[in-house]
Amino acid sequence: MNYWLVKSEPFKYSWQRFEQDGKTFWDGVRNYQARNNLMAMKTGDLVLFYHSNEGMEVVGIANVVREHYPDPTTEDHRWVVVDLSPHKAFKRSVTLSEMKAKPELSQIGLIRQGRLSVMPLKAEEFDCIVGMGMA
Known about the structure:
By secondary structure, the chain is an alpha+beta fold. 27% of the residues lie in helices and 36% in strands. The mean pLDDT is 97.
């Protein structure tokens, strides 16, 4: 199993909307590194859902329920999507500033490459953030 973090601006697509929808395809990725990360996702992988710009916080965990396929929002064959479903909302959001304060999270993409929208996490990093959100 692999672990990931995806970012969404809550005014465009929030965790609450995601829970209401029950499933979504993760589209709009137009960065090759983020696209390659989508292509590496496998069914059953766990994904942290991060509200960017507003809130700047991890709010829940999603599951990858379908591996990459062509992005239906564009005719450009270079871009792909994956299907995600909500797994569990955090008891409390974990803010970017809280993550920055944890030395064990200093190497995550969210801190090192803040503009990247889809990024891998190590199991220990994922577990640390989940532990903070479920406390």
